[in-house]
Amino acid sequence: MPNWGGGAKCGACEKTVYHAEEIQCNGRSFHKTCFLCMACRKALDSTTVAAHESEIYCKTCYGRKYGPKGIGFGQGAGCLSTDTGDHLGLNLQQGSPKPARPSTPTNPSKFAKKIVDVDKCPRCGKSVYAAEKIMGGGKPWHKTCFRCAICGKSLESTNVTDKDGELYCKVCYAKNFGPKGIGFGGLTQAEKKE
After folding, report:
1. Which phi-psi region, left, alpha or beta, contains residue 53 (left: φ > 0; alpha: ψ -120 to 50)?
2. CATH architecture entry for 22-66
3. What residue ranges do the domains of the chain occupy?
4. Distances from the Cα of 81 to the Cα of 60, 61, 66, 91, 159, angstroms
5. pLDDT digits over 16-54, tens only?
6. How far is it, in rounded angstroms, from Cα 143 to Cα 131?
7. Using CB atoms within 10 A as the burial measure, which of 3, 10, 15, 123 is most buried?
8. CB atoms near residue 71 (< 10 Å)
9. Known Gene3D superfamilies for this protein (predicted)?
10. Per-residue pLDDT tens digits for 50-64
C-alpha cells in the first residue's frame, strides 16, 4: 500500500518533513523551523551547525560541550573563557587546566623593530606603508606626496627627476638646474637682441 503524504520524520519534533521545508544534516531531516541548536535554541544553517551523533548544536555550544577545556580555550583568538555553559544545560567535565600563553611577545626587540622600521615620507615626514608607497630618488613617498617640488604636478616614473633628495618634473628641473644660455631655453629672442 502506498505511503500517501508520508515522508521523513523530523529529527527534533518527530513530525513528517515535506520536501519544501526539509533541511538535511548528518543523514537526518529537519523542518527549517526545527533546525535549532539543542542548547541555546539559536537558528542554524549549513555554516553554523555542528553535529554530534544525533544532536545538533551551534559551533559555540558544540565547542563548550565537546571542545578542549581549560584556561586559554575560549571563543576567538586570545580569549579566556570562564563560561561553563551551565545556563545552557551543558554538563562539562573539568579537566586539568593548561598553562596560559604569555600575552607579551617572546622577543620584544623584534616587535619594536617592526614598528620603528616603517619608512618615512621625505615630503611630509609621516609613515609610508606598502599600499601607498611609490619609490623615487631611492626613497619611499606617499602617492599624494609624489609631486614636483616647484609646480606641484603629479609625477610618474616617466617624468620624474631628483636633485638633493627632492623630486621635480622634467620641465621644472630643466628650467632651474639645466644648462643656461642660447639654445637651451634659458633666454628668449628679446633677451638675445639686448
Report:
1. left
2. Ribbon (2.10)
3. 22-66, 133-177
4. 11, 13, 14, 16, 58
5. 888 888 888 888 888 889 999 988 989 988 888 888 888
6. 9
7. 10
8. 13
9. Cysteine Rich Protein
10. 888 888 889 888 888
- Which grid cell is 133? 608607497
Phi and psi at residue 104, to the nearest 5°: -95, 155
CATH of domain 133-177: 2.10.110.10
Are 22-66 and 133-177 the same fold in CATH? yes
102's grid cell: 604569555
pLDDT tens digit string along 131-175? 888 888 888 888 889 999 999 998 888 888 888 888 999 999 888
What is the percentage of the chain residues whose pLDDT exceeds 70?
65
Q: How far apart are CA 25 and CA 20, in angstroms?
A: 15
